[in-house]
Structure formats: C-alpha cells, structure tokens
Design brief:
Helices cover 38% and strands 18% of the residues. It contains 12 helices and 16 strands. Strand 1, helix 1 and strand 2 (26-31) form a beta-alpha-beta unit. The protein is globular and about 55 Å long.
Amino acid sequence: MRALVLGGAGFIGLHLTRRLLADGHTVTVVDDFSRGRDDAELARVCADPAVDVVTGDLTRAATWAALPHRFDQVYLLAAVVGVRNVEADPARVVRVNSLVALHLMDWLTAADRVFFSSTSEVYAGAVAAGVAAVPTGEDVPAMVADVTAPRFAYATSKLLGEAAVLHGARAVGAGAVVGRFHNVYGPRMGTDHVVPEMALRAIRGEDPFRVPGADQYRAFCHVDDAVEAVLRLMATPAATGQIVHIGNDAEQTNIADLAKLVLRTAGSHASLQPEPAPAGSVHRRCPDLRTLRRLTGYEPQVGLDDGVARTFAWYRDHWRPDHGHRATTDPVRPDHTGKQVPPCR
C-alpha cells in the first residue's frame, strides 16, 4: 500500500509512519520540518528506502499542486497543537489549521481515501456547560463558549476542518473519516502536554511537585493505541463519512493520581502542590468508544502504568534542554524533486 502522511514529522505522524513501514507499506512524508530539528529518530525514519520525503508548507497551494493522486491512503495530521502554542498565537493556529484543511478539500479526488485528525476540544464547551455527558459520544453538540478566548482557536479550526474534509470528500466522491483524538500521549510529543511535562519536572527533581488541575479527570490514550485505531478506521469501509472518537475509556484518572504515578516512576518522594487548573480546561474528559468498537473491534492495549513508564523512559534518555532531541549525523538525501535536504530539517 502507498500512504501519504501529511505532517509526518509530528508526534502522531511519526509514530503512524513507523507503524506503516513496519506493516510493509511505502510512505510519503510531507512536512515543513519546523519541529524535527536535530531529531535522530525522525532522521532514521526518513532514511528508510520505503520513505519518500517532501519538504513543503501545507498552507501553500503550490505544495498541494505538486502532490500526485497515487496514494491508497492519505492521513492529514499537520496542525499547530498544544495549549501554550494556541494561547501564545491563536491567529496562527486558525490560519495554519484552516488553510491546511481547506487545501485538502480542494485537492481531493474520487480516488482518495483520507483520515482527518481532529480533537475532543471541539466539544469541550458543551462538557463545560453541562450539556454533554461524560463519557462523551460523537453526537454531542459542538459548542464554543467564548469565541474570543485564545484557547478556542484550536477547537474552531478543527471543527472547520471536520466540515471541510467531510463535505469536500462527499462532493467529489472520495472516502473520508474524521478521528477525534482524546488525550493521546507517548514518546516524542514535545513538552507542552501533561504527561511529558510532569515527567521532565520529575526528572529535574522538583519538590514540591506542582499539579495544576489536580482535581480534574482525563482518560489518557497511548500513541500506539491511537495509531492502531486510525489504521483500523481507514481499513473499514463502514467508517467512511463518519466522525469517530479515539482514546482509551478504561484509563480515566485523576490528575493528582497521574502526578503520583509519574513520581513513583521517577523514584521521587516529592510532595504534591495542587494548583488551579488552566483557564478554559474542562473538569472531566473521557470518550465514549462504542462507535469505534462497533466499526473496528478496537480495544486499547497499553495501560496507563505501562504507557507512562515508556514515556518517562524516553524523556529521561532522549531529552536535552538545549535542542530537545539528541543530534543526528545522518547525511542529507534527495526529496522527490531531487533537491538535497536534511532528513530531519
């Protein structure tokens, strides 16, 4: 199978690419590589002979015009994510995420089958307002409590993307499925998410250990399980045209208990220091996975203890405060145009 991974240098994108390669497929990775500098893991993947690397800005129509329609599956994972990024520059979030989705809508043909990555944030306002049950199904109303709040820039951009991809695919006869990710975590996801952020503070020996939103609840999903769900949805014709929640409904945990797990993993005896939750965050989030199970038979396999241990070990062994990831010395290789580009830049 020939797969196109748009945003393949990102967190879920790289894990998905590695899984596709392990399953024997060929992969074209498209990314601007703004996040993958000095990344040895990304460099190894890009150096695989089954991988074609395209360096391009997916907010520009010219990048899309250069992409052929010769792929069996297309995965759109490129986006600006992370609460800190969203709050620091919400205009960029809206611009980048919306343009990428709209360009995909214009690019699609009847021969394409596409997965669009969305988020539980699109319905967070409904949960906060008490009009959506938890665990939450796909039929929940989408609700933005305050369109002027920077945090909602991400949710609105992804909601637009859902509509653009589903309606655009239907208009041309393409197949599309939207997956809403719920608190996916794992190695190589940066530092702006709760599990790696806690892991790095535990590694540094923070005591007392700060726990924002200690009384909140989340259902965390390891990235390997998320990738498995994505692949199953793409292999299921009945999923076409649907929005499906992706996560791990068996791993609901209190954030204070998550902090205790991270500290145990680190061998730390630090005391907890509860702090107010970030502005705009919901008290509880957990997906209802009945649609995903009915369509694919999916069941999450990575428990929270195991997943946190894997994630902690990766950050302990790989993270550097100056560059993030250990540097690579892998040589440059040509992209699809013949231009020499570094595999990790």
